[in-house]
Amino acid sequence: MHTIKSLYYHNPSVQGFEKMVAYYQKRGYRFIDLQELYDILGKRKPITEKLAFVSFDDGWQGNLQLIPIIEKYQVPICIFVATEPLECGNFWWEYVTKEMGVKRMFLFKKLPYEDFYKQLADIKKRIYLKRSAMTQEQVMILAKHPLVTIQSHTVNHPILTHVPDGVLYSELNDSKVILKRISGKEIFAFSYPNGSLTSREVDACKLHYKLAFTTEQRHIKLGDDLFLLPRYALTGQYHRDLLKVWGIWKWLKKIL
């Protein structure tokens, strides 16, 4: 046994999340927190049991509804939080999607840095959204929960490969500083927004963190690069999620 199941969500349903947790616990998996994962990988400790690690990206308010589930099953989770939405209440793609629709939002992602933020500022002036992101107070409370670890996901959730060097530095550094102030805890791990990275982003990350997570969909293996850790992207749709972690979903998409 040399691998760890690495699962991540954004804003799943309570029912879908609980089903997945129950599925793995019934099959003898033990869920580990971020610190234990780091200890295992950093020291290359032998893996002698079935292990799973669960994380969430962004900092959605809906994640708060999962607390009774993690308490029921005693499942530790890590939430990678983007800090700017804690202030404004929403994530940039929510504004763009409401203005343009989902398909054009994916094109919007590809805009050069300056065009992206200029157009986004104009869109925000026209759009009102009900808060979907956690507040600073909610993150502060969550950080005190023994089963929750808060870590970094940048300030603005940009496509990091599109930003200048100075912006890359501030996105990595400032989110760490802000979250440490809010949580009172060490911020030592990072999740790359959108899974977008090159060697530049990885090298910059190494200046601020001890490990970082991508969106590469596979198990974590002993010996993996600590700044390129993989995760299966799950949605809370139970049967589709099972196909993903079984490695079948990617194959089905190719043939259908």
From TrEMBL:
Chief location: secreted
Listed GO biological process terms: carbohydrate metabolic process
Keyword Nucleus carried by entry: no
Keyword list, A-Z: Signal
Keyword flag Phosphoprotein: no
GO molecular function: hydrolase activity, acting on carbon-nitrogen (but not peptide) bonds
Pfam families from the UniProt entry: Polysacc_deac_1
The NodB homology domain, residue ranges: 50-256
Stored CDD domains: CE4_NodB_like_5s_6s (cd10918)
Cellular-component GO terms for this entry: extracellular region
Annotated InterPro entries: Glyco_hydro/deAcase_b/a-brl, NODB_dom, Polysacch_Deacetylase
Compartments (UniProt record): Secreted
Record protein name field: Polysaccharide deacetylase family protein
Source organism (scientific name): Segatella copri
